[in-house]
């Protein structure tokens, strides 16, 4: 009898655990996708709808139109060696201190921002973009080819600090 009761208790615990796990998974799969602009209608001056990830020509169009902030998510030494002209430095570690980085006190929540890193498998720009979206920024994009793609296209760069 005790063995049957023990098996029954284990079965009930398994069912409850499975139900909890299933409800957590359903929440995760129904959450708003991060791979789209939060405002859902971010476009270039030419009317092209922008996704979360940008290619070099899309980023170049935003750069040339002005009013877009570019943020470099690479380590400071790489930023100082060379970065997109006018870009701010915004290291992902800036979000781990418990305080928001100065960047969020400078730019309004509707500011269009393009974040980049070394490109390829680097996820630093994705991490910064997600944190900015979590803080309420509504027009955040990632330059997927990163800084190397920008340089390869012969677009404007500079070295040193941006003050």
Task: Please describe what this structure looks like.
- There is one protein chain.
- 42% of the residues lie in helices and 13% in strands.
- With 163 residues, it is of the alpha/beta class.
- Strand 5 (112-116), helix 5 and strand 6 (140-143) form a beta-alpha-beta unit.
- It is globular and about 40 Å long.
Annotated CATH homologous superfamily of the largest domain? Rhodanese-like domain
Shape: globular
Write down how many β-strands occur, each being a DSSP E stretch of 2 or more residues: 7
Radius of gyration: 22 Å
What low-confidence regions span 5 or more consecutive residues with pLDDT below 50? 19-40
Q: Which terms would index this structure?
A:
alpha/beta; Oxidized Rhodanese, domain 1; 2 domains; 5-stranded parallel β-sheet; two-stranded antiparallel ribbon; 42% helix
């Amino acid at each position: 009898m005790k063995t049957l009761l023990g098996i029954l208790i284990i079965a009930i615990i398994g069912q409850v655990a499975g139900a909890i796990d299933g409800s957590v998974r359903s929440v995760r799969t129904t959450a708003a996708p991060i791979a789209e602009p939060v405002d859902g209608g971010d476009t270039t001056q030419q009317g092209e709808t922008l996704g979360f990830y940008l290619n070099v020509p899309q980023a170049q169009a935003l750069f040339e139109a002005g009013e877009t902030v570019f943020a470099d998510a690479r380590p400071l030494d790489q930023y100082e060696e060379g970065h997109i002209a006018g870009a701010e430095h915004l290291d992902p570690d800036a979000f781990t201190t418990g305080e928001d980085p100065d960047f969020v006190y400078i730019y309004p929540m509707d500011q269009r921002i393009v974040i980049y890193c070394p490109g390829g498998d680097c996820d630093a720009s994705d991490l910064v973009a997600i944190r900015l979206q979590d803080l309420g920024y509504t027009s955040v994009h990632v330059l997927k080819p990163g800084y190397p793609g920008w340089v390869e296209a012969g677009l404007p760069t500079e070295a040193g600090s941006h003050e």
